[in-house]
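WARN retry 2 of 3 for item q-0093 after timeout on previous attempt; input resubmitted unchanged.
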Amino acid sequence: MAAAARLVGTWLQLGLETAVALALGLAVGSAARVRAVLLPGAAPAARVALRLGIMLLGARLTLGQLLDTGGASVVAITVVVAVGLLLGTTLARRFDVRPPLSALITVGMAICGNSAILALAPIVRAPHRETAYAVSTITIFGLVGVLLLPVLGAALGLSDAVFGMWAGLAVNDTAQVVATGYAYSPAAGDVATVVKLTRNLAILPVLLGASWLTVRAARDAAGSRDGGVAWIGGDAGASDAGVATGSPIGLVARAVPWFVIGFVVFAGLRTAGLLDGALPTGGTLADLCSVAAAVLILVALAGVGISTDVRAMVGVGAGPFVLGAAMWIAMGLLALGLSAVVAGSAGVSASGFGGALTALVADYHGG
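OK item q-0093 returned
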C-alpha cells in the first residue's frame, strides 16, 4: 500500500501520497476478515515505522532551524494545550461524559492524540473499550483534518509557515499531522512536524499530574493509613492506587518518546555536517534519510488506516463523540488564529521562524 501510494503520489504530483496511503489502509481495513489477517503487521507498522520515519526527518533540519521553529510555537502551543484541557473538562460535564473516558478524549485532543491516550490509560485505569473509543474518536477527527485542512488552507491562501503551524496545533495524532502538513507542501510538513513534536512534550506534566491525582485519590479513599500513601515511586502508592506509576525518572522516560530524542539527534548530526557526505548513487546521507523517512511514514499511515476500528465506538454512546467534535472545531479555530498571528506576523517572518522556513525550502529544493 505504501508503494502504491508512492506511485500514485508521484504520478499526480499533488503531494497527496500520505493521504492516499491512509485511504488505502482504511479501505482495506474496512473488510473485517482482511483486517483480522493484516492487523498483526499493521499495528506494529503504525507504531514503529512512524516513529522511525519521524526520527529520520530530523536529518532535514539543523538544530538552529529546530530551535527557531519550535521556539516560535511555544506560546501558541501553551495556549492551545491549556485551553484544550480546560475546554474538555468543562464540556465533558455538559455532555455528561465521565472519567476516565472524558480524560482520555480531552488529553488526546489537547496534546498529542493517540500517544497521550495510550500513555494516560493505564494511569487512570481506563477500560479497554473506553481506550478504543477515545483512540477511534481522535483518529476520525484526525482523518477529517488530513482531508479538509489542506483544502481550507489553499482556499484561504495560507503560507507554508502559517499552515504548518496550524496543522501542528490543530491536528491530534502525530501521523495525521505529518500527513496533513506534507499534503500541503514539503515546507509546511517540516514546520508541522517540529510544532507537533514540541507540542508532544506537554504530555509530561499532564502524566505527572494525573499520576499524582490518582495516588492522592487512592490515599484519600484508604483513609490515609499509616501516614498516607507514598507519592509516585513508593511501593505502597503503586499498590493502593492500582496503577504502576513507577519512579519519577521512569515516568519521564515514558512521557518523552524516544523518537523525539532521535529526531533531535539526527538534526544534531545534520548540524555537525555528518550527514552531508556524498553517496556513490548521488545525493547525500541527509537525502537518503529523507527518502527513507517518507517511505516509512507511508507504511505507518497504511498501518494506521488498517488498524482503525470505528466499530469499537458502538455501545458507548454519542456523548463522547460530540465532546470530541466540539473540541476539534473550537481548537481548530483557535489554532488557526494563533498560527496567523505567530507565524504570519511581519516580525517573525523577517527572522527566526521565517528564516528557518526559508532555509528549509532552500534545503528541500536544493536536495
